[in-house]
Amino acid sequence: MSASEDIAALIPHQGAMCLLERVVEWDAGHAILATTTHRAISNPLRSGGRLRAVHLCEYGAQAMAIHGGLSARAAGQTARPGFLASLREVALNTNFVDTLAGELIVTVHQLLRSEAAWQYAFEVWHEDRLLASGRAAIMAQPR
User: Fold this and answer.
1) Which end of the chain is more exposed for a tag (fewer CB within 10 A), N or C?
2) CATH architecture group of domain 3-140
3) CB atoms within 10 A of CB 12
4) Integer Cα distance of 1 and 9 in angstroms
5) How far is CA 102 from each of CA 26, 45, 62, 71, 137, rounded to the nearest angstrom?
6) What is the dihedral of CA 85, 88, 92, 97, to 10 degrees?
7) CA angle 120, 34, 135 (to 5 degrees)
């Protein structure tokens, strides 16, 4: 199984909407992922041929889901589905990201984990430049 197929098995997003391509590292508290999908003409988040920085929040949210899936898998379980309930303290340091060469690096740090919800901080980097950051709350779907 390729890295992208392994990631797709962890999240509900499939095809071009699966935005992250590889896991760089992860442990119980964080994950670092990499991707070049911001440059893809087929990226479904593009509008008017461009990819706006606000969509980096989705990259962060997918990294959170991947972290949750990897953590559950390590415990011999399947991740409980969740939905993005809120974004806080989002900072965007650019307008568009589709022309950036090379990879984006997406980091997530788990701040809180309970049966009903998870909180994460996220950052999206290009080389040594922070493009986006924020916090997110994810609510578990009812059983």
Assistant:
1) C
2) Roll (3.10)
3) 10
4) 10
5) 21, 19, 19, 28, 29
6) -20
7) 15
pLDDT digits (tens, 9 = 90+) for 96-137: 999 999 999 999 999 999 989 999 999 999 999 999 999 999
Give the tokens for residue 135.
Answer: 């916090």
CA-CA distance, 31 to 69, in Å (whole number)?
A: 11
Torsion of CA 62, 119, 132, 128, to 10 degrees: -90
Q: How far apart are CA 70 and CA 103, in angstroms?
A: 22
pTM, full prediction: 0.94
Burial, 120: exposed, middle or buried (Cβ in 10 Å; 0-12, 13-18, 19+)? buried
Q: How many CB atoms lie within 10 A of CB 3?
A: 13
Comparing CA positions, the residue from 95, 98, 123, 137 lying closest to residue 34 is 123
Domain locations in the chain as residue ranges:
3-140
Measured between its terminal Cα atoms, the distance across the chain in Å is 30
